[in-house]
Amino acid sequence: MVKMLDNLLNERRKDMAMSLAPAVALFIAMIVQIWLSRDSLEEYQQAYLSLYYLPMILISYYYPRYGPFQALLIGTVPIIISYSLFAPGMEYAIYMILWLIFFVIIGWLISFLVMRTEQNSSELEEMTKDLQDSKELLGTALWGAGLGVWEHDLKEGRDTADARWRALMGYSPKDDIPNDVFQIHVHPEFMQKYQDTMSLLTSGSLDNSKLELKLYRKNGDEMWARIFLNVKHSKDGDVEKVVGILEDITSNIVQQMAVVSANEKLNILSSITRHDILNEITAAQGYLGLMDLEGYILPDTKSYDYMRKVNDSIENILRQMEFTRQYQDIGAKAPEWHNIPDKVKKMAIRPEFQSLEVSVDCPIEVLGDPLFMNVFYNLFENTIKHGGEVTKVDISYGHGQKEGVIVYQDDGKGIPDPMKSRIFDRGYGKGTGYGLFVSKEILELTDIKIKEVGVEGKGARFEITIPLANIRRI
After folding, report:
1. How far is CA 427 from the centre of its chain?
2. CA angle 188–213–142, rounded 5-degree value
3. What is the SS3 assignment for 114?
């Protein structure tokens, strides 16, 4: 602390000395000029008098805000004093006035340049501070997010990494990082994928990419990582460096695998349970049928009514079991791409839908749940069952700035307005009551919406709204 204060005082002393230097030089020069102005100007005196104005330049440099004014004042005062005391000749006056004008202009230029330099220096210092603050903030954000940064220099063939990257991959701060370090850390199963991506980046075919890979740490432990890659270009436009951000997603992958495994086990258990329940229901229906055939329960009796109600309850249980069969697989697997025209055309030639003339103008693939095409099956089925004398179905596609829309339109009798808000409710409808409800649930897993906007008497019209990120052109 004492040493720091001592250094600060020394710097202040230097600044004061530098500030007093031009004032002392100016005072001496003024005395000499006044003394020389007593006689006529000799050549050596003229040469010295010209040097008098040099302190004006120093004044403009050290006090640039008032430089021109100070230069004019300092140059004028000695002339006035000289004429008041000694009245030198006209030659002296002209000579000194010319030098005065010349050095005032120089003083003004110096003041202007110094002020501009100080302004630029202040702006540069402020920008440097902002950049340093941003760098520290970015470093804090990356560390807090658990992200490590790594850089591969193509020209030098050298890799560098920050402390977080080293910690994630098992390197100490002093360890040297091998060239193209991921070549020795990528799991063989993902090596080709990594090499193909790096080849596209270094050749300039890609500017950035994202990969999820299995890696080996330095000590041989396995980890799952998400890598964000971006290229840096030289002034010539060539790819100079590849910069990567590494994120450890091992816990996420483990959790996902645990959820998938649990879902599979639950589905197996549900399937076994459903199978056993259906067997018992089939047996109960069989016994009811035998009682009816053998005349144990006479028609037009309360017992017969009770038997019919039991049979209706069994039918409701069967519909519930069918719903659970459809619903159990929703969201159990990762989304996949569905070729809409190809799959719809294949669905349209199924025996149950051959009475429909199906037109498809929808040249896209959609990223959705594996059960995504069940939505179209349910729509076709509803058209056949509830559309009346329906003969035609048109499926088309359009898009806006943020989303695309698949339109399903038939030429049936349409859906009454009071029913539109309820047709996607669970259990509503004349059939099982689960078809459109399940369809809505399937779509919402991947942020896809469905609504009915048709006009009664002109056919049903379903609009399926899809984020553009879930769409790609065929």
Report:
1. 41
2. 140
3. helix
Assign domain 336-473 to its CATH superfamily.
Histidine kinase-like ATPase, C-terminal domain (3.30.565.10)
How many other CB atoms are there within 10 angstroms of residue 10's CB atom? 10
Note the pLDDT tens digit of each residue in 192-233. Answer: 988 888 888 888 888 888 888 888 888 888 888 888 888 888
Q: Where are the domain boundaries for CATH 3.30.450.20 in the chain?
A: 146-248
Question: How much is the pLDDT for 2?
Answer: 36
pLDDT tens figures, 430-472: 555 567 888 898 899 889 999 999 988 889 999 999 999 899 9
Nearest to residue 225, comparing CAs of 175, 332, 150? 150
Helix (H, G, I), strand (E, B) or coil at 150: strand
Enter the tokens of residue 55: 């302190």
Pick the CATH number of 146-248 from 3.30.450.20, 3.30.390.50, 3.30.460.80, 3.10.450.320: 3.30.450.20
pLDDT in tens, 278-290: 787 888 878 777 7
Query: Exposed, middle or buried by CB within 10 Å (0-12, 13-18, 19+), for 37?
Result: buried
- Give the residue ranges of DSSP H helices in 37-162: 43-52, 54-62, 67-85, 90-144
Residue 211's region, left for phi above 0, alpha for psi from -120 to 50, else beta, is beta
Report how far residue 271's alpha carbon sits from residue 439's, in angstroms, rounded to the nearest whole number: 21
pTM over 0.70: no
Could you tell me which of 416, 462, 460 has the C-alpha nearest to residue 439?
Answer: 462
Long-range contacts of 73-79 (CB under 8 A, 24+ apart): 74/26, 75/99, 75/100, 75/103, 75/104, 76/100, 77/30, 78/30, 78/33, 78/34, 78/52
SS3 173: coil
